[in-house]
Amino acid sequence: MLRILGRMSSINVRKVLWTCDEIGLAYDREDWGNGYRPTGTPDFLALNPNGQVPVIQDEEGVLWESNAICRYLAGRHGRADLLPPGGRDRALVEQWMDWQASDLNVAWRHAFLGLVRLNPRFQDARMIEQSIEEWNRAMGILEGQLTATGAYAAGSAFTLADIVLGLSVHRWRMSPIPRPSSPALDAYYARLKERPAFQVHGSDSIP
Hints:
Blueprint: E1 2-5, H1 11-23, E2 27-30, H2 42-47, E3 55-58, E4 61-64, H3 66-76, H4 87-115, H5 125-149, H6 160-174, H7 183-192, H8 196-201
Parallel strand pairs: 1-2
Antiparallel strand pairs: 1-3, 3-4
């Protein structure tokens, strides 16, 4: 059985869990990190030298980095609907996945860690305000894309891009920040909430 190491409060762990549920994979999840088993131990660092969750282990071995794990699981189980096998269709899905992991994550970092996680290292009011502006600007990019497609991030069909972005939209909506009017994002979020796996791993009180 697939082994998943990581706590439920981690957005990156929930990406993997949502992917597993979309595919229909059974898994055994173990709580690691932030209040659970520490990820700085030699045993955990032997699995992921970065000391971060999630980590998965199956008969093929160990893998870390949440977006890479999602790609691996979709590819290994032949889910071309979630991750096209190649060409421009695949590149578009991976484009939005990579954007989520880079530009979008950088934008929300200071505001989220300061206002939601209450991390004492992220309490500079000016930096929080700047982060909110950058976060809303980034979400405006996604608003524009969803307006253009009228459905999902990479086009008319649900893909892995929507798993990683859907959880990011949920985080944005749950955080105590001012947000601009975003009708395309609102409609997108409503579509995602119709999916049983999102109801379990995304549409809850955990940002």
